[in-house]
Amino acid sequence: MSDYLVQFNNISKFFGKVIALKDVTMRLKKGEIMCLLGDNGAGKSTLIKTLAGVHKPDEGEIIFEDNNIVFDSPKDALDIGIGTVYQDLALVPLMSVTRNFFMGREPQKGIPFLKTFDVEKANKIAADRMGQIGIDVRDPSQAVGTMSGGERQCLAISRAIYFGAKVLVLDEPTSALGVHQASMVLKYIVKAASEGLAVILITHNVHHAYPVGNSFTVLNRGKSMGTFQKKDISREKLLSMMAGGEELDKLEVELQEMDRIHNKN
Amino acid sequence: MSLKSKSISSKSSLNEDERLKKISPLRVLLNRPELGALGGSILVFIFFGIVAGDTGMFSAYGMLNFLDVSANLGIIAIAAAMLMIGGEFDLSIGSMIGFAGICIAIPAIYWGWPLWMSIVFAFAMAVLVGYFNGIMVVKTGLPSFIVTLAMLFILRGLTLAITRLITGRTQVPGLRVLIEDDPLAWLFATDTFKWLFTWLGSLKLIELRTDGTPLATGIPPSVIWFIALTLFATWILMKTRYGNWIFASGGDKVGATNVGVPVGRVKISLFIGTAVASTIFACIQVLDAGSADTMRGTLKELEAIAAAVVGGCLLTGGYGSAIGAAFGAIIFGTVSMGIFYTDVDTDWFKVFLGAMMLIAVVFNNYIRKKVTESK
């Protein structure tokens, strides 16, 4: 029995001649938040889709709770407990909180062939779950469109957890959010991890990742630049690694300036 | 542990500023898609009550008259509304009505099939047409507007060509004699609650003919179908898993697919729904008239869509209601018949229909903005 809940060992993915991912290794314990950092084009999307079972890795192995796993479809990944929340959240603004929460997995009651969607039960669960995050859904039949961006993100994460996710894969959960909304989402992510979930937080925003992450994996041009524990690496170091070695010196100055402004805020 | 206590202590402040604004009951009502059509119906009744209250429009006979027209339109409008909520259009409804009509009439009259078998045949053809529409839209990703526009021409052309080929004319009469004792036709051809009307007639509460029988003999089958379909569609949309899938498929195809909704299957089934509703419409009309006409149902698809839109369905999908579409149909049916009881030239009906639809679309757009508006 290893310490790790899930291990992605030496994952590689090729599209024809293009090497999208090469030898990426990530290992997560329960309750750990690993931040996957990388600039645009670093291979983040490909890695997410590989974790979610959309792509099959060409090399490497996925070990979940000490079992070697091969995903044939996104459903396989969901079934063993890897819940992925994509950037578009898969929420329909015109539909109610409840109807979104249970979309595709509605609880039913009644006799066969005349089964009905158990709206009361669904309303109760949805309101409960949102309440646990501190979002007071006065009326679970209100449209998701009336919620703020942060609340929507929390709804999508909460849904993934409710439907049995043990490993949460979050794709840029804070990228479209303001400071206040982002902190609300990050707080929820920390809470989820403290309850025993392993979280892979994919982002290009070091300032959001650094406060919540336990470890950091930096992806550059399809390759992992290594995984670092928080105590071993500074925010500045992470930033410069994301940018890549060659332009490092030139960027260093700029980044420090940005950091200074950020800290002032 | 410190994390947990932190999240709890911050909860109250979170509640304070993340809390939703208090929603007034009026806003809640405004958020219902059928509100506009319900209000419109009431206005229409008030209008004709004032203008034509003493003309017999609101006698039992007059009311059944406009209810019959409303109900016929309603049957197809409800199916069109469900398809629109699912994010697609069907422009082949009208042509399907004509096609279903001759699918009943030609086998029954020219091939000697029993009437029930022709009716079953017509429904089988409807399922086929709906399935074809659906699979084309789902598999090619083409807009349903184009696919069903093609089907509009194909079906109407087929209807004309086949009828002229087999019968040499464009009408097939002679069905009325076949209705009696048929095990299936009564479903589409029987007036119900006759006893009620006879009783009311005997009390002289409703108008009588000179021979003493009531002028209005019973509730026409269209009205029963209309009510049953409205209830059935509402039950599906509000109370079943499949209903949630319809909203999801129309609201966000990609998102729905990502969480496991079988979007393709949902859409195909909805296309089958509109074709089957057209066939119910055709059965009622053909058996009532005793003949099939190749031009029957022309432009009905647009009236059905107009009723659905007035009923609160968004053209972009994901929002609407069957009850709304039913009220939309009642508005159009009432005005189209009511206009005969006023001094207004009936030519004005189309003007009204267009204006009504325009107002409804503007209103619906406003509602959608309100519904999806972030705080």
Strand content of chain A: 25-35%
User: Per the principal axes of the C-alpha atoms, what is the gross shape of chain B?
Assistant: globular
Name the structural class of chain A: alpha/beta
Q: Report how far the terminal alpha carbons of chain B are from each other.
A: 33 Å
Strand order of the largest sheet of chain A: 6-9-10-3-11-12
Number of separate strands of chain B: 2
Give the ordered list of helices and strands of chain B: HHHHHHHEHHHHHHHEHHH
Helix content class of chain B: over 70%
If strands are numbered along the chain, what order do they take across the biggest sheet of chain B?
1-2
Tell me the radius of gyration of chain B: 24 Å
Biggest interface, residues from each chain: A-B, 42 and 39 residues
CATH classification class of chain B: Mainly Alpha
Biggest sheet details of chain A = 6 strands, mixed
Strand residue content of chain B: under 5%
Q: Helices and strands of chain B: which structural class?
A: mainly alpha
**Oligomerization status of the protein chains:** heterodimer
Overview of the molecule:
The complex is a heterodimer of chains A (265) and B (375). Chain A is an alpha/beta fold and 265 residues long. Chain A has nine helices and twelve strands. Chain A has a six-stranded mixed β-sheet with strand order 6-9-10-3-11-12, sandwiched between helices. Chain B is an all-alpha fold. In chain B, 72% of the residues lie in helices and 2% in strands. The A-B interface holds A 74-75, 86, 88-95, 99, 102-106, 108, 115-117, 119, 134-139, 142-143, 145-151, 184, 187, 190-191, 194 and B 3-4, 7, 10-11, 14-15, 18-20, 23, 31, 238-241, 243-245, 247-248, 251-252, 254-256, 258-261, 314, 318-319, 368, 371-375.
Quick take:
The complex is a heterodimer of chains A (265) and B (375). Chain A contains nine helices and twelve strands.
List key phrases describing it.
heterodimer, A: 265 residues, B: 375 residues, mainly alpha, ABC transporter involved in vitamin B12 uptake, BtuC, two-stranded antiparallel ribbon, 2 strands, 2% strand
